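ok so i was messing around last nite and threw this chain in just to see what happens. nothing serious, just curious
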Amino acid sequence: MRLRPYRKRDAGAVVNWIKEERTHALWCANLLPFPFTEQDFNGYLEEMEEQRGSSGFTATLEDGTPAGFFQMGINPVLNSGFLGFVVVDPGIRGKGYGEQMLRLAVKYAFEIAGLQSVALHVFDCNTPAIGLYKKTGFQETAVTPECFAFRDEVWGRCKMEITVN
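result:
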């Protein structure tokens, strides 16, 4: 697996990975409309790059096929990063690709960007993602209970963080 900067044409893959409304809400907290288009996704990423300096990254298989995506913002004052919109192609989930992608993201953050920590938010009901983040070395540092409503569910939000060794 490799990481490379996100390209606008990668939106076609990401749009196809998020097909169900609940999965969509778990992934982006409804910051994008459902269903969303390539134009919606690229527009949002451009807005976040302008407002927050966040950059998109695509994880690819050895043949260059997009396998995952995440966005990383860097806070130079705190020397920390923040991951968002973490997703892996559902057709290859459960095979270690998510863990590989996150390890590359953390390696980039620590070894290339020189950050001291990386954080992310995940909904407390998203136990597969929480397990993946823990397996990658993230630890829960805060919980905001019952902060997001989806239909008849109310979800809490966990902040997870990993620090340089």
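not much to say yet. The first strand starts at residue 2 and ends at 5.
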